[in-house]
Amino acid sequence: MRASNVIGEIDFSGQTAIVTGGASGIGREICDTFAALGANVAVADIEQGPAEEAASELEADHGVEAIPVETDVSSYDAVTEMVETVDEAFGRIDSLVNNAGIGESKPFTETEPDLWEKIVGVCFYGTMNCTHAVLPHMIDQGDGGAIVNFASDSYKGNDPGLAVYGAAKAANVSLTRTVAHEVGDHGVRVNCLSPGTTKTPATADWIDEYEDRILESYALDRIGEPADHADAVAFLCSDAADWVTGEVLSVNGGYIRG
Ligand code: NAD
């Protein structure tokens, strides 16, 4: 287990970060890193109980303000309400991390439209909804902002069983690049993080079962940890990445199937 916050000089004091899917897994670690670096945090998650728990822990552990905001990122109306709640609570929005995502491994021929809608709804519409709702706030603030969208190694189309999930993640990559170009004049940067296999509640059982086989595809001989991504997100949202936009950063231990 390695420690988070290796980029210890970053200071987000006085800033606000929204982390979707912030109640669990990678998102929870991202919330922790933002709070440890001084940001107030909105834990935006469909699971209200865990979001409340996370927000309380962030306040207790780091002395920042943290609010749980129950939201379904696949719903534009819900997301608009979530963003208004955050704006009312903190008065500004500096970072948006579109981390919420779901997946299910199944051959494409065995999938049905309701599953496509579910996966694309959270993984791609979630990113569009939150980005669209937050951008006017960042632009009006006049001093920029940072958005980090979430892809996955699967966006390259090399993971049988993850056709729809991979396609939704590829759409996030495309959206990232285009929107980055459109909002750069406002000082808003939009980047994408592409995680490799990482142990979280969503993947732990599968990783425990297939760890040796999974590691054959990685140059570095370990499974990813949420802190690997939290550090990368902190970098992308900080001034250290002031001239980085429209990029896809793979944090994947050198995954070699792409
Ligand atoms: P996780 O399941 O542990 O956490 C996901 C969080 O998103 C949960 O708190 C869940 O309640 C929330 N969520 C789900 N649907 C939502 C919705 N409609 N609205 C709001 N919140 C919702 O997942 P994780 O493994 O931490 O993955 C985080 C991100 O990283 C996802 O985008 C995932 O696709 C991506 N990713 C993960 C891995 C991995 O190996 N874990 C690999 C590549 C990419």
UniProtKB/TrEMBL annotation:
<dbReference type="InterPro" id="IPR002347">
    <property type="entry name" value="SDR_fam"/>
</dbReference>
<keyword id="KW-0560">Oxidoreductase</keyword>
<dbReference type="GO" id="GO:0016491">
    <property type="term" value="F:oxidoreductase activity"/>
</dbReference>
<dbReference type="InterPro" id="IPR036291">
    <property type="entry name" value="NAD(P)-bd_dom_sf"/>
</dbReference>
<dbReference type="Pfam" id="PF13561">
    <property type="entry name" value="adh_short_C2"/>
</dbReference>
<comment type="similarity">
    <text>Belongs to the short-chain dehydrogenases/reductases (SDR) family.</text>
</comment>
<protein>
    <submittedName>
        <fullName>SDR family NAD(P)-dependent oxidoreductase</fullName>
        <ecNumber>1.1.1.-</ecNumber>
    </submittedName>
</protein>
